[in-house]
Each structure stands twice: as structure tokens, then as C-alpha cells.
Amino acid sequence: TEPLLAVDNLHVEFTTRQGLVRAVNGVSYTVNAGESLAVLGESGSGKSVTAQAIMGILDMPPARIPKGEVRFRGTDLLKLSDQARSQIRGQRIAMIFQDALSALNPVFTVGWQISEMFRVHRGMGKRDAMKKAVELMDRVRIPAAKQRVNDYPHQFSGGMRQRIMIAMSIALDPEVLIADEPTTALDVTVQAQIMELLAELQRESNMGLILITHDLGVVADVADKIAVMYAGRIVENAPVHDLYKNPGHPYSKGLLDSIPRVDQKGQDLYAIKGLPPNLLDMPPGCAFHPRCPYRRDNCVTDVPPLYEISGTRGSACHYYREVLDGTVE
Ligand code: SF4
Ligand code: MG
């Protein structure tokens, strides 16, 4: 059976003045209805570019997709006409962006902006569309929605503005919702509330949810499964609890060890040494080798494939068994 959304061996490259950047290098993942996938990675790992390819919002050129498919209910979106694509974008597959303040128009009320979704896409009249806007503001738990529907974006806090963005993104009942770093600009408590809201909405409407983040700490309670990206590839995929219990790639292990934990108060936090690689000058072999405490000789020459650990787990590390068993130090 075909998943709701399947990214299959996706490659995205950019032509730059300095040379060719392979931003996404053979990425595959799937999301089903009612399932939530966290895509984790540092900036430049290719996680946002993959999402932009799904949405069809990459600038081409300079971007190019030399290989791969993005199948939505079995149809490869990359082969659709622009017009067919725009019927899906924002309606059946919607996206929430990081920066709610710049995404909202400062000169229109939030009610007007939310209700625009219904006026433009559902042909509703102003009054009905405005009523729907209030309903949606309730649904994303904006207090006193009826009173606040005619307020302007700047009259809301950052967290409330993000809720307004979420309201707009779910207005047309999308089947897939992609949230790209939806909480990065917010403080920790508000981050948790927004994540909780996304999880609730996802359960209520049985959407497929893709949560893109650089912060492993915020997705633990929300995601079912996780794909860890590094330098344009997936280095580990796993059910979220399996990865938390026992990561199967040194990079995931490093990320996990750098999350503050209540049970380890006072201990020094581990941080992964070094920087992500320059995509114009990728290290040979395993791209993580310059930073890897587990590195051996062949890591510098042999690119690790995504080894299958089980039916639901994979790791792109030659020594994943030792990493899982904790036998390599
Ligand atoms: Fe580290 Fe080698 Fe595994 Fe890469 S393949 S993550 S360098 S041990
Ligand atoms: Mg990004």
C-alpha cells in the first residue's frame, strides 16, 4: 500500500558561483495519515530544502531536482503541471513557517487574513468566512477569539501569532502538514505549548505531520518516528522511542547526549565537536567522519549506505552495531 506521502531517493542541487551544491542527496521518507515524522538536522542538513521540494516552492533555477520522486497518494508531484501542483499546495499539503511575524501582513486584521483562505479557496462570503476564522482561532486555542478577530498581528504575542499561522495552515483541512522550525523564535514554555497544539490538531484530524527541527528535545513527545539528516542525507531513521532509548548513529547519539535531562542535573552536557561540512567541499567517505569519535580508517574512504537495522530502523554508520551495543568507545 502506498503511503500518504513518500519522498523517494530525492536529490536537490543548487548551482552557485562557487560550484555545485548537493543539498539533498538521496533522501527517502514516508508519512502516513495520523502519523507524525520529525526531521532533525542542523542548518544546511537539507531538511528544509526537502520540505520545499515537497511543497514545490524551490526556486528552479538555481535549484534542480536531478533525481527522485515526491509521491502524494501515489502521484509523483514533481511530474505535475504548475497548475495541478498549486491545487495541492496550501490545500492538501500545507506548511507552517518559522517566522510568524513576517509571514503575516501587518496592515490586515488576523480575522481578515484567516478568512481570506475561505474567501479565495472556498468562495465564501465575508460574513461566513469571518465566522469560520473565529472557529479556527478557537480551534488553535486563542483565548477570546470572538473579541480578538479584528485585532492586528502586532497586538498578539509571538506564540499567539504562531497559532494564527497554524490556523491559516489548517483552514482547508490539509492531509499533510509540514511545520518548518515552528517554534524556534519562541521561548521554551511557548515552544512546548505549540508542539502540544500541533500534536492535538494532528490527532483530531488524522493528518500526516512533518516536524522539521534542529532540536531533538522538542519532538520527543510529539513525533512517532524520526529521520536524522546530516549533510544532505538521512543518517538514521527510527521510531522515536527506539532512538531515544538507544541511538544507532554517532551523530544521533551526540545530539541526544547534548539535550539537558532532568535526571542528570549538574553533569556537563556533551556537545558534538566541530562544524557541519561545507557542502561545496564534502569530506570523502562518511561525511560525519571529521567529527566522529567512533571513526576508523575505512570511514574516511567508504560512504556508508543506510544499513537496515530492522524493518523500521536504519543507520548510515559502518559501525552501527557497536554504536547500538555501546561497545565502541
Ligand atoms: Fe563515525 Fe565511521 Fe560511523 Fe561515519 S561510518 S558515523 S565516521 S563510525
Ligand atoms: Mg531551515
Automatic annotation (TrEMBL):
Keywords: ATP-binding, Cell membrane, Membrane, Nucleotide-binding, Transport. One of its GO terms (biological process) is peptide transport. CDD domains: ABC_NikE_OppD_transporters. SUPFAM superfamilies: P-loop containing nucleoside triphosphate hydrolases. PROSITE patterns: ABC_TRANSPORTER_1, ABC_TRANSPORTER_2. PANTHER family: DIPEPTIDE TRANSPORT ATP-BINDING PROTEIN DPPD, OLIGOPEPTIDE TRANSPORT ATP-BINDING PROTEIN APPD. This is ABC transporter ATP-binding protein. It comes from Sphaerisporangium album. The lineage of its organism: Bacteria, Bacillati, Actinomycetota, Actinomycetes, Streptosporangiales.
